[in-house]
Every structure is written in C-alpha cells, then in structure tokens.
Amino acid sequence: MSAVVAQSLHVFGLRSHVANNIFFFDEQIIIFPSGNHCVKYNVDQKWQKFIPGSDKSQGMLALSISPNRRYLAISETVQEKPVITIYELSSNPCRKRKVLSNFDFLVHKFISMAFSPDSKYLLTQTSPPESNLVYWLWEKQKVMAIVRTDTQNNPVYQVSFNPQDNTQVCVTGHGMFKLLRFAEGTLKQTNFQRGEPQNYLAHTWVADDKIVVGTDTGRLFLFESGDQRWETSIMIKEPTNGSKSLEVIQESESLIEFPPTSSPVPSYERVVGASSHSSLAMPQVFAIAAFSKGFVCSAGPGRVLLFEKLEDKDFYRESREIWIPVDPQSNDPSQSDKQDVLCMCFSPSEETLIASTSKNQLYSITMSLTEISKGEPAHFEYLMYPLHSAPITGLATCIRKPLIATCSLDRSVRLWNYESNTLELFKEYQEEAYTISLHPSGHFIVVGFADKLRLMNLLIDDIRSFKEYSVRGCRECSFSNGGHLFAAVNGNVIHIFTTTSLENISNLKGHTGKIRSIVWNADDSKLISCGTDGAVYEWNLSTGKRDTECVLKSCSYNCVTISPDAKIIFAVGSDQTIKEIADSSILREMSAFDVTYTTIAISHSGRMMFVGTSVGTIRAMKYPLPLQKEFNEYQAHAGPIIKMLLTFDDQFLLTAAEDGCLFTWRVFDKDGRGIKREREVGFAEEVLVTKTDMEEKAQIMLELKTRVEELKMENEYQLRLKDLNYSEKIKELTDKFIQEMESLKTKNQVLRTEKEKQDIFHRERMEDLLDKQSRELQDLECCNNQKLLLEYEKYQELQLKSQRMQEEYEKQLRDNDETKSQALEELTEFYEAKLQEKTTLLEEAQEDVRQQLREFEETKKQIEEDEDREIQDIKTKYEKKLRDEKESNLRLKGETGIMRKKFSSLQKEIEERANDIETLKAEQVKLQGVIKSLEKDIQSLKREIQERDETIQDKEKRIYDLKKKNQELEKFKFVLDYKIKELKKQIEPRENEIKVMKEQIQEVRNFLLYNDLWPQGVKIHFYNLTKQVRKVLLWRTLPHMETELECFHKQNTQLELNITELWQKLRATDQEMRREQQKERDLEALVRRFKTDLHNCVAYIQEPRLLKEKVRGLFVKYVQRADMVEIAGLNTDLQQEYARQREHLERNLATLKKKVVKEGELHRTDYVRIMQENVSLIKEINELRRELKFTRSQVYDLEAALKLSKKIRPQEVLDSVPSKDKLSIAPTVRLNEQEETGRIIEMQRLEIQRLRDQIQEQEQVPGFHTLAGTRLPSLSSEVDFGVQTK
C-alpha cells in the first residue's frame, strides 16, 4: 500500500436533504451529514470528528440516533444496494456495531428509520413501490415483522416509535396516517382514517398515546388512540409592521405536555413536487419538535412557531415566532430568509434549538432568549457560518495567507481560513460564478461569472470589483505563481492578462473543444491546457505558440497538472487512466480501476499525488506512480469531485465537489521524506482597506467617542441625582425605622408583662382543672364498673335465649323440608295429567289447521284464476287505449315539432334581424365617425395645401428676388472690375512720374554736393520744391479716391443690412428647429413612458384580468379620442388625388430646394470673391492714407522752405542750374500758382460728386450690401485742410 496518508480535518458544508439530518449527541456536540461523512461537531470548542460512510457508498439517505445516545443508524446505497450501518457512538473513534445488508424482501432504499425506546429494536421504511415497514431486532439482524404500508405508490415521509411503548409505531405520508401495534409476530393497524386524507409531512409523539401531525397546508392535528382530538391551522397574514407574521386560528380542546425529541425531515423534493398544486398561501409543516413546555413547528419559508401550554388552562397557544434572519451580504436580502426549515432538534437540557434549512444552512437559538423577548419575534443565528447551498464550481488558495477561495452556483464567493476553520468573507452576486483564482499575495481574486470576468480587491469586510472584462461564461481562470499574470478561458481560447496594466497581452488559440483545465509551470514561462477535444498543449508565453502537444481524440480530458521540475505533464480524463506526458508523447498510463478521475494534484515536493474520482472518493499515491493498485482511497464526498488543490507548504489538501461541501485534509508521508516544507516567514496579516472606509470608520469612532463621553457625563449626572435621592430616602427611612423600633420596644415590654400575668393565671387554672379532672375520673371509673357487671349478666341471659331459639328453628326447618317434598310430589302428578290433556287438544287443533289450509289453498287458486281473467281483459282494454293515445301523442308531437321549428326559425330570423340592425347601427356610427374624421382630414389637407401654396409663392418670390439680386451683383461686379482696372491705370503713370522725380532729385543732390556751391538752406529749398510737385500730383487723385471710399462705405452699409436680414432668418429657422426638437423630445418622452408602462403591464402576463385592466388604462392614457374612431372605407379616388397632389408638390419643393441650394452656393462664392477684393482694396486705401499723411507733413515743410528760399537768393539758384534741370524744374514752379491749384481742386470735387451719384444709383440695386461694418474716414476733410494750409 501507499505510504501517503490523508486525514480529514474539517468540512464546510451540510447535506440538508438527508432525512433526520441533525441531532444532539450531548449538550455541546451535534451530529449532521456532510459529504459522505457524518460529522460530530463541538459547538464550544469548534472541533470536528468524522464517521466515514461505507466503501463505495453512493450517499446517505437517512439517519437515526437511539434514545440512549449510544447508537447511530445510517441508511446508504452501496453499489445500487441498500445498506443500514449501525455505529457505536461511545467508542472513539466510532466503530461499526452491525451492518444490515442481506434482505429476504424486495427493497430499493430505506428512507426513514427510528430506534425503539429501549434501543433494542429498529424500525425502517422502504421507498415505493415496495413501501415495506420492517420491524428489526437489530442486534441479531432478525426481522420480527414486515408489513406493506401503502399500495398506491404514495411517498412515506416518517416512521417512529411510541416513546413509552416498544410495540406501538406511527407512519405518516401522502394521504397516510397509520398507528400499528406489534403483536404475535405481526404489525396490525389499530386506527382507521376518517375524513379527507391529508399530506402528512411530519409528526411527533406526545405523552402516552397522543401524537401531533403537520400537513402541507399548514394544519396541525392531535390524535389520541387514532382519533382526532384537536386541530389548528396556520395562516400567513400581513401584519401592520410590514413584515409577514403567522397566526394560529381555529383551536379546539387541549394538548398535553410534549416530551423532548427531534423530528426527521421528509424528502424535500418529493414534498415540493407533491404539493405544487396546493395553495401558495398555506405554509408547509416540514418539521415538528417537542419540549417540556410545548412544541415548535416550521410554518412556511424562514419561520418557526413556538407553542406553549398555558398554566391555568389545558391547551396550547402560539406564544411567539422565530425567524431566519435576513442576510445583508445577499444579492437580494429580501429573499435571503426564504428558506424552508427541514429539521429541528432540542438539546438534552432544552436550552438550545438547532434547525437545518433547504439551503444547507444550520441555525441555532437559545431558548432563554425567546423567553426574554416574549411577545416579539425572535431570530435564529448561524450555528457556525453561512455555507454553500449549491455545487462548488471553483477553488483556489494563495501563498501569503491561509485562505481558501470558493465560488458556487448559488452565486456566492466565499473566503475560508483553513487554520482557524472560519469564514473570513463572503458575498453574493446577481450572476452564477463558474471559476475563481486567488492572487499569491491573498489581496486579489479573479472570478469568472456568467456575464463577465471580474478582478476584485479583498478588503477587510468586503469584496469589491475594480476591473471587468467582457469574457462571458469563463469556466477556468488562474493567477500565475508570481502573480504578475493571470489566464482566463473563453470557450476554446485562453486570454492572458497582466496584473500591472490590466491589459490583454496575449490570446492562445488552438483547442477545438472546450478547455477544461489550465496550469502554470513553476517559473510562469509556460502554460499547460487540456480540453474536451482530447488535446494537451504546452504554450510558450513569450512567443504565444505551442511548444509541445499531445492529442488523443478518444479521451475527453478533465484536469491537467505539471511536475515541479516542469518536465512531465499529468492528465486525467474520461478513459479512466492517469497519463504521463513528456515531449508531446505519452510515456505511460496507469489504470483507474473502473472509476473516472475528475481532478489531479501533485505536491510541490513531487513525492505525493492525489486524484479525485467521479464517485466522490480521493486516492493518495506516491510518485513515481506504481503499476499495481497501490494507493489509499478515502471516502470524501457524495458527488463527483470538481476541484482539488494542495497548499503551498504541502500540509493540507483541499477538495470541493458537487454536493456543495469543502473538505480540508492533512497529508503526510509515513516515511517522512521531503514532504514538510518549513515556512521561512509566517502568514501575512495585512488587509486592504480603502481610504473612504478608513475615513468613515474614523468619523464613526469620533462620533462614538463623543457619544460615549456624553453618555458618561449624563450617567454620572444621573448617578449623582440618584445618590442624592437615595441618601434622602435612606435618611427618612432610618428615622422612620428608629421611631417604629422605639414604639415596638415599648409594645414588646407591655406584652411581656401581660404574658407573665397570663402565665400565672393559666398555671393556677390548670392546677384547678387537673384536680377536678382526677375527681371526675375516679367517679366515672366506679360508675362504669357497675354498668359493666350489669351488662355482662344481661349478655349471659341473651346467649342462653339465642341457643334455645336456634334449636327451635332447626326443628322447624326439618318439618318444613318434609312437607315441601310431599307437596312437590303431589304437584308434579297433577301437572303431568294436565299436560297429557293439553297435548291431545293440540293434536286435534293441528289437524283442524291442516284442513283449513287445504281449503284456503283451493279458494286461493280459484280466486287467482278469476283475477287473472279480469286482469287479462283489463290489460287488452287498456292496451288498446294506450295505442290510441300513443298515435295521438305522436301526431301531436309531430305538430309540436313543426311548430317548434317554425318558432325557432322565426326566433332566429328575429335575432338575425336584430343583429343586422345592431351591426348596421354600429356601421352607421362607424361611418359617421369615418365621415367626420375624413371631413377633418379634408379640412386639414385643404389648409395644408393652402399653406403649401402660400409657402411656394413665398419661395418663388424669394427666388425671383434672389435672381434679381444676383443679376445686380453681377453688374456691380463688372463695374467694380472696371473701376479697379481704371485705378490701376491711374496708379501706374503716377508711379512712373514719382520714379522720374526721385531720379531728378537725386541728380540735383549729387550735383550740388559735388560742386559744394550752395549752403544747406538752398538744398532744402530744391528738395522741398520737389516734394511740392509730388504733393500737387497726389492732390489731383484725391477726389477720385474719396469718391471710391464713399462708394465702398455705401456698399458696406448695404452689406450690413443684408447680414442683419440673414441673421433674422437664421434666428427664425433656429426657433423653428428648437420647436421641432422640443416636439421630438416630447414624443421621445411619451414613447419612453409608454415603454415603461408597457413593461409594467408585461409583469401581469400570467394574470389576464389585471393585464386587461392595465392595457385598458394604457389605451385611455395614450390614445386620443379622435383615434378611437375606426377609419375604414376611405374614398380611393380622394386618396389617389391627395397622393398625386402631394407627390407633385413635394417634387416641386425638392427641385426648388436644389435650385436654392445651387444658387446659394454660387452667391456664396461671389460674396467670398467680392469680400476678398474689398479687403485688398481696403489695404491699398490704408497704404495711400499713410502716404497722404506723410505727404501732408512734407507739404508743410515745403511751404516753410519756399518762403525761406524766396527771401534768400532765388535768382542765383536759377542761373546755376543747367538747362536740362531748368526744363524739369519749370513746370513744378508753375504748380505752386494758386489759380491752377483751385482749378485742380474744383475738378476733383466734381469727380467726387459724380462718383457719389454713381454709388447712390448702385445702392438702389437690390441685394447689394457692404462688406464691413465700420465706416471708412472721408478724405474731403484732409483735402480742405491742405487747401487752407496753402
């Protein structure tokens, strides 16, 4: 055998559907089934001891404990055969006392058991279709009696012994309540059911022959000797405080005291299935338990009723309720307490009540607490901790903390501590959880839910999600050994995520079937996966490709693991073998010996291997694997093992299965080689706490401290007040007591003196009475002696007299005997003679009777013949009458049939006419409604056509105006182009003149400087003279430029008007758009409200009446009255005409819209081009302004210089200049003449006036607008200023 040993340490779970699944062994120890074990659990010291099930057991069905608490009977199914095992609980460990396995009768399984009061006999009930009740003398394995309790395949829920009588038993089931008595080797029924049969779910015995029974309709019955004595019904009612409470009604007669006992639970699935047709308002009584003051019974989901006996009366009433508490960690706290209580039991001292529920939970309550909270509902507490109520689907552990993480189909995630055997954290969610993995640090978990994959923090008192991935239905996930990565399976794809950036870094694709298991190697460089496609792949995470692969399509793999050195892969699957895989090939296979391996785990030391099977057992074996059957097999679970793990230090083995139980095992090697791994550091005690939680707790602590201080001060003040009051009261009481004591002392002294006087008086009186009594006694003795002598003499005389009388009486008796015998003889002779006479008379009378009978028979015969003839005559007469009547009746029937047909046809015609009238009226009403609605539609269509005609006319006018504006703008564009060309032509010669003048000035300068003939003032004179020439040339262009500026200004004003008009139109369209948007929002809100109301209506889909009312309400709420008229039979010609007109108008409108859009685009491009040209012209004008300003300053300097040069030597200057220079200077001198200047100015003013007139004409053109909003400054003022200076 293998040297690897596993010892079960602790289990987290309960199998609540085992009949009679919980009871007390003593005051501290309870026994309940978990997995394939019975667990002895010490409530105070928290330790567990295990009673394992039989080898190859398929699960426990029922339990029973003997009244003396020495024996435990377990009903199991072993290899499809029923077995009853009886254990002796007093031994440690518990040993098997007897095994009942060979039966002479047909049996499928035993569903209920009970020990007799003296524990010598065992009562067992088999399941249908046999339904045999077997009475055992179990120590000798002898069947004392057997009887079939039911012949209609109805389920039987409970059997029990009378606590005071070994021979009386009770059986309850569906439609069955039987009391049987064992006598002369048979079980005979002693009661007969009366009334309607009920579905009796549970019962318990009362003193002597009384028994209380509960049904699936919330009714309780008391039977005495099989006859019903009392009945009560439990009804669910809505109390005033908002929570459901139960009230007991309809009581009759009294109950008697109940002895303490436990009540087994019937098969929950069968009861729910059998009672599915019953009323939902009736609570089902699954369990009843009795105690000295009364009894408790389950009364619907989450509630237990306590009945107590009244002191002054002889019956029981409900005293209070006990509720299962609401679980705040549940996803739906309002439903967390909706659990059916299946079994209840009192402790031997009746101090504690424990209960098991349909959700595999254990609750307890101290009965003294219920007495304290009398009149108010009491609440259960968890006996240990909340347990899983559905199969466990995920299991994980970590390195830094002694934690186990599990998830289950009950939508919960739980964290257990395998050192303290406690529940650290748990939380329920909306979706089912399929897989879980715990980070090596113990601070994070990743859970695969049905809708998403969630990464969550483990806080000090909560499990909080901080990242979600859209991986639906993830069945496998696992953190790497280093914790920096985690893998999640999505069907046949493995997603790799990093825990630092929380991103998906790789996707491993290759499996063709669902992936069932993944495992990391020691250094996290590789990942091994297996699936239902028979493939085992080894993935290289650096490249994302497969390093090795092994495919065996005939095998569907369940689990895979890898050796610590990462060289060998171990896989188990549906082919009932363990495979060693290395380098893409199977090295060897080890048979599983007719079971399927579901999971496999190998120790970190590489010396131990554990596998889980489909029958719930675990096998421990050494590595390398043996070829023979060398392993230790242990009973563990009552279903296939789903997950199996070893802790990091190889000390504990963890297993989870479909039965919802979690086992922890201590594992070791008998050889002790390299198994134990010493931890260098202890487990971490750090926990995660959010900042907000800390701040909230700190705030709460501060508030509590302040509250404590306030309470201290208040209590001290109250204590001082009370001390003062008490001191005053004590003082008053002491004074009062002192006064009373003084008065009592005086009274006591008076009473003592009186007592002494009375004593003296009584002593004297007693002496007198004693003397008197002695004298009277002597007198009485003398008198009595004399009377006795006289009486004795009388007695002697009477005795002699009685003797004489006796002798006389004896003589008289003898004489009487002789006379009596003589008289008797005489009488006998006389009566015998008389009897002879009577017999002769009797014979004669009999002969007469026979003669009379013969005569009677003869007359009777003649009378009968006469009567037969008369009857025959009457019969023929009446038959003839009957035929006549039948013929007349048939004739009348035919006539009546014809009349009836006529009547019915006329009635049908009348009804049809009435129906036709009604239909015609309804059609008339409908047609009137249709006509009204059509008239309204015609009016609305006419209005719409009129409005559309108006809008079309407006649009056409607008299009015409826009066309005219477009033409005018084109004309204006042509004019502007022409003006720009003219201006350019005018600017070019002036630039040439400026250039020539600059050259002349430069030559004069050079000449003067070269000859050095004139002083600096003369140079300035010639220089200024040249500037003056330029200024005069500029003055000639100023009027023309001013007119252009005026024109541009008018254009700007017109453009401003156009912009304001467009803005007004834009605002109007914006307002219309907002109105439409508001309408759209209103319609969307209406649709949303309608959807919400419709969704609320869908909730009543199972209730037609409510659904009809809700739909009618929707119709009234959302359908307008005008919509209620059914529109039918529209005029087709009118519809066609309306459709044709509408189509024509829409087509015209579409073409007009296209034209407007196209022309708008053209105008927009023209506007942009004109705007650009205006901008360039404005820039040129600004440059000319700057030059004009500069020129003005030079003109001013020139005038000053001319005045100065005239004063100096004008003639010398003229002579010194060469002839060429004279020719060029001469015209400039003429420009300074005032007359010529005035003429030039007048010409410029005329030009300006002409340009202004032209601008006014162009402003009258529609559609022309100015481009800028600012008015350009006029040049006329500057010209006037120049003239004034000249």
TrEMBL record:
Keyword tags: Coiled coil, Repeat, WD repeat
Gene Ontology biological-process annotations: axonemal dynein complex assembly; single fertilization; sperm flagellum assembly
Family annotation (PROSITE patterns): WD_REPEATS_2, WD_REPEATS_REGION
Cellular component GO terms, alphabetical: sperm flagellum
Coiled-coil spans in chain: 763-1000, 1135-1201
Ranges: WD repeats: 385-426, 508-549
Highest taxon of source: Eukaryota
UniProt cross-references to InterPro entries, sorted A to Z: Beta-prop_EML-like_2nd, CFA-57, WD40/YVTN_repeat-like_dom_sf, WD40_repeat_dom_sf, WD40_rpt
Domain EML-like second beta-propeller: 393-667
Keyword Hydrolase on entry: no
Pfam families (UniProt xref): Beta-prop_EML_2
Transmembrane segments: none
PANTHER family: CILIA- AND FLAGELLA-ASSOCIATED PROTEIN 57
Protein name per the record: Cilia and flagella associated protein 57
